[in-house]
Amino acid sequence: MPRLKARASLEPLREVIRDAGLRSTGPRVAVLEHLQATKVPLSHGELVEALVGHGYDAATIYRNLIDLTRAGLLSRINLGDNVWRFELRGPNQALHPEHPHFVCTQCGEVTCLSQVRVKLTPAPGSTKSVVSSISEILIKGQCTQCG
Length: 147
Hints:
Elements: H1 2-19, H2 26-38, E1 42-43, H3 44-51, H4 58-70, E2 74-78, E3 84-88, E4 101-104, E5 110-112, E6 138-141
Parallel strand pairs: 4-6
Antiparallel strand pairs: 1-3, 2-3, 4-5
């Protein structure tokens, strides 16, 4: 009976994948489920490590990350260390809206600042902002554990 309950709980993820025009496969569901549970952007390597018990190899995870990103379900971000990280997007915007990220310069911890909004305004005397849209905000500093 628990197995049926687990399958039913994954149905919303399967539906999101199908609504994005993709086939709902085990690796795609596993990637979305894991990203939904962690709520922070993860690298390909971190996802491979987390999903190794499911029997998916690194290439399968990578292909599915790219497919989910192209379908608009994931965002691919670089937090300044040349490592691509992935997080939920698309139909999951209500659960995971656009937000800045904080990276600790000492320990490397990544934190989503989903409760923070950043607004750029032109400096006094400036004619107007050269920024029409922002795709990513990255804030660096020391976290409370390191500071």
